[in-house]
Design a protein that fits this description.
Strand content: 5-15%
Distance between the termini: 16 Å
Structural class: alpha/beta
Order of helices and strands: EHEHEHEHHHHHHEHHHHEH
Number of strands: 6
Largest sheet: 6 strands, parallel
Oligomer: single chain
Low-confidence stretches: none
CATH topology of the largest domain: Rossmann fold
Number of helices: 14
């Protein structure tokens, strides 16, 4: 039996992924599925660059607005729900198009994910309390004692992943590096069941991407990002312990509200954090296999040649 096709569209922040996905949806029978760890949250609209209500009405996306900002959403949650969305799309006679910039989600979907124990808030809180007292480098050393293989892959300040690895150890009594080698219900690689077409957006000149990033964060502030974060903190009683408030842009605004530094410093911090995010995304992409790169020119969203090239490639790939 011929494998059904699916499309993966990824790239750094502010590269024009959503705009291209919408143009693809104009030409092909696709269902859009978001691959973004922030777009899953309700009421986080400006800082996530979420498509507008009108855009979402015209171009519905799966996996947008499915959690409250005070709720957790794991990589395993994503893989499970994305596979459901993909299957529903196929059963409706349409092609799933997964679009976003959370590269860890893409990798987990492509390669499969080990069966990990679900998070326990009390265990995570205990680890984070220890980290507040001892620092994350000390927690990293603790991880080295119980799971040296995982520890070797993590920076001593990579708090989220250190915390999760220690949580897995404390809940299951097994190191994460051992569990990832065991087959589980989410461990099947995507290519076993789907013909995977991968499209990646890149920039020949990094300065062009940085300019777009800087302009976009400034526009977010002008559109009311500070007020959005204030409302979120009040409505959902959010703290720095919630993953939603550690997202780029939201974290910097939360610090601004708590620490009272200048709006200009907020702008600079947000832009710098966004550029660092893009750097990490591009690093992931450099280690990727079997994807077609589409170099983005300045003003790519309005560049008909860029869009036409991508559509022509996709037409050939799907034929």
């Amino acid at each position: 039996m011929t494998q059904p096709a699916c499309i993966l569209l990824f790239g750094p922040t502010a590269s024009g992924k959503t705009e291209l996905a919408m143009r693809i949806a104009d030409e092909f029978p696709v269902n859009l599925i978001s691959v973004d760890s922030v777009l899953v949250y309700r009421d986080m609209n400006i800082g996530s660059a979420k498509p507008s209500p009108d855009e979402l009405a015209q171009y519905p996306h799966g996996l947008i607005d499915i959690r409250n900002p005070n709720e957790s959403f794991s990589v395993a949650d994503f893989v499970h729900l994305a596979r459901q969305e993909m299957q529903s799309s196929h059963e409706a006679g349409r092609i799933p198009l997964l679009v976003g910039g959370t590269m860890m989600y893409f990798r987990a979907l492509l390669e499969g994910l080990a069966d990990m124990p679900p998070s326990r808030p009390e265990v995570r809180q205990a680890i984070e309390s220890e980290a507040e007292q001892q620092g994350w480098p000390a927690m990293h050393r603790q991880l080295q004692e119980v799971d040296p293989d995982t520890a070797r892959q993590l920076h001593p300040e990579h708090s989220q992943r250190i915390c999760r690895a220690l949580e897995v150890w404390r809940i299951s009594g097994q190191p994460m590096s051992q569990l990832v080698r065991q087959p589980g219900p989410l461990s099947r690689p995507l290519g076993k069941d789907w013909r995977v077409l991968q499209m990646g957006l890149s920039f020949a000149q990094r300065s062009q991407l940085h300019e777009r990033i800087d302009q976009r964060f400034q526009l977010m502030l002008e559109r009311g990002l500070i007020e959005e974060v204030q409302a979120l903190l009040q409505k959902y009683e959010l703290t720095e312990q919630h993953a939603s408030m550690r997202a780029v842009g939201y974290r910097q605004v939360r610090d601004y509200l708590e620490q009272g530094f200048s709006r200009q410093e907020l702008l600079e911090r947000g832009q710098a954090a966004s550029r660092q995010l893009a750097k990490r995304q591009l690093t992931w992409m450099r280690g990727w296999d079997d994807w077609q790169t589409f170099p983005v020119a300045p003003d790519a969203c309005n560049n008909s040649n860029f869009t036409t090239t991508a559509l022509h490639w996709l037409q050939r790939a799907l034929s």
